[in-house]
What does this fold into?
Amino acid sequence: MGWKNKLFDCLNVMFLLLLMLTMIVPFINVVALAFSSGMASMQPDIILFPKDFSVEGFTIVWQSLDLWRPFMNSVIVTIAGTFLHVLLSSLAGYVLIQPYLPGKKLMVSFILLTMMIPQDAIMIPLYLVNKDLHLINTLSSLVLSGMVSGFSILLMRNYFMAVPYEMSESAQIDGAGMFRIFATMYIRLAKSGLATITLFEFVSRWNMLSAPVLYINDSSKITLQVALKSMITEASATSSNFLVTTNVRMAGILISIIPLIAIYPFVQKYFMKGLMLGANKE
It folds into this structure.
């Protein structure tokens, strides 16, 4: 290895370290502020360790500001929406691999076309549909929003196409139905694909902001991200005649990312494998 290659590697490492610091330092600052006292957190400094260690921020944000209600709304919307999204996308992907399905290419082209349409362009039509279905101000509107996507359908289709269709034919000869073949054979062989779309959809729904702002007006049904936005952007937000200090806001942010950190270790293995396999498929 020549000196040019060593220099290139050193520059790469330094660049990656700087890039890593831009992401880690703000997160450490949030953690340090969340565990600081109210007065210490109001000082305009970037700190890496808590000042006057305290958990009062978590107590205030959870009990006094009633953050538990938006938190539970987000949990319901995220779990129900992710489950339905993964189920319907898998079923649609399974249908698209059937060799004798008429109009299959047209269906795939239509699904690809839906991926070209930005979500913001259809917000008003979606609002009118939800209004006609009397779903405004209900969590159902958030669960049904984005229940299927062209990306997830085509990703699962690609995974299912890797399974030899002869296995399905053999199972049919042995008397297995289509749904049983789907549930016991294809789903088990596509765990990486399921983990990939589950993680993508879970993160997307947990961080969802535009749909709750558009569909929900009832304060008892707002989601966590909307509550955090109000708490952070309103400089003098009060709920019980007290000032919302910086440690309270940072505690709210920290609570909002705990579920994402908690789920990642369980799907990391399949997620990384799924990304690599997905990149090699058509």
